[in-house]
Amino acid sequence: MRVDIKQLKSFLLDSNLVAKETIEEVFQEAEKNKKDFGALLLEKKLIQEAEMQKVYAYVLGIPFVDLSKETVPIEILQIVPELIAKKYNIVSFERTGENLKVAMLNPEDLQTIDFIKKKTGLRIVPCLTTRESIQAALRQYEKSLKAEFGDILTGDIKPDGENSKEENLEQVAAGLPIIRIVDTLLKHAILESASDIHIEPDEKEVHVRYRIDGVLHDAMTLPRDVAAGIVARVKVLSNLKLDEHRLPQDGRFKIQNDEYKISFRVSILPIFDGEKIVMRLLDESSKGLTLEKMGLHPVALEAVQREINKPNGMILVTGPTGSGKTTTLYTVMDILNTPDVNISTVEDPVEYRMPRVNQTQISPKIGMTFAAALRALLRQDPDIIMVGEIRDQETLEIAMHAAMTGHLVLSTLHTNSAAATLPRMLDMGAEPFLIASTVNVVIAQRLVRRLCVECRKPYQLDKKEVESLGKSYDIERIFKVIKNDPTSKKFVENAKSWEEITMYKPGGCEQCGGEGYRGRNGVYEVLAMDTDIRKLVTQNATSEEIENKARENGMLTMVEDGFLKIVQGMSSLEEVMRATKE
38-43: long-range contacts at Cβ-Cβ below 8 A with a sequence spacing of 24 or more? Predict the structure, then answer.
């Protein structure tokens, strides 16, 4: 949008939305680097998108509208067809006589406005809105899952016993009702940002559940009659054997259109009542994360950025299954992925496809193990190697020798904390001096659900709750960390005890589907290998000794990072306790 920069700066100075000295600094940086002033404020998270769009609306002299909490009548919504609405980010929300109000991200897109004017024959009144508001309105085009199935299940679906005959499976999988059932389940999983779909048959029904923000939710219960047809359809999509019902099968397929590109990783497992399907959704169209967006504390972020820019050594990410380790590795690879380096990976399985990265899938059945693949990779002249997981002594030794001989090695381990990683490597047979000289940094992490800012509720702990908290955590130390930390100081500067700190708990609204949470944040501890830590490793120190020394040297533990996110209103006490308990 063509906004007068000086007028924008003047309004921001008068509005007190951003500190005046900060505005001056960002304005000078924007002019120096020839960047958009408003975009730079958003990039630095100095102002929310909604606030910035309101400022733009004021400067441009047009109305601002927020549709994220509004229900638009379907007859008004459909004045602008769904395909056009999604392609051009424009939604009609109010009609008065011959005037049609439309919400847009760019009200200066005269070509789109003129197109809709000709199509509808109405006078178009553009209003500025936010991306979140547009997405909320676009979701209203979709029917509810149950409403869609009301039509589909009236189709001609044969009884399960008849469906299960081998000669009918291919025919059933190609039948319109089954295709519509599977397509609808996949579409709604994508719309709800699910990470996994579970389709589980029992004696009488088929249960469908979506994992959203790490938690499973019931999505739909279907008649038992459709079980064999759904399994057959998924097998056809994944190019698996239709007549194999006794052994597990793994496959994958992809759905791609103008809006998204989703890869589905499929696992089919025989169970007592049939075959259970679990599909992992991998969004290949999403823009890569940055270390900043992952939620790393500034001190931890600085340490990670420093270590990943070294030409050799090991960068290890640790945590349990589902803690976001792979996402962190891919984020680091995305940063390092430049034309002047050769990046090769060994994975099981290959999660995301990355341009200019040579990705190898292991296959233990034919002897293609992590160790064998890694040994072969070293003859491919790599600069950076990513090993999906270090599972055994042989893989660990090859990875460490690669790190010693001029390669940067990224990998994961299953340990509970960053400090526990180093003794774990000793247990796997690594020599202490090799660990001390090859490991650059260890990142331990968990994922916690992010509170919905629309409905979160403030509260304060009482004395009894503080005492209970003290049984699980060193709350005196954590309180000092919070009080002294620059990122949370403004939230707690007047608090003299835990009872005076404002925390938040989940509420429940339309925006978060009544859950009280939307999305997830990482909580991290980043252990950089300094002289003190290297010395302890060579002395076979315990994880407790290593952690105590790292904390003395300024490392934030996952618990401390979690509590910083609690006092900043990003997550709840219950979520952090759930994620960080040993």
Answer: 38/3, 38/8, 41/12
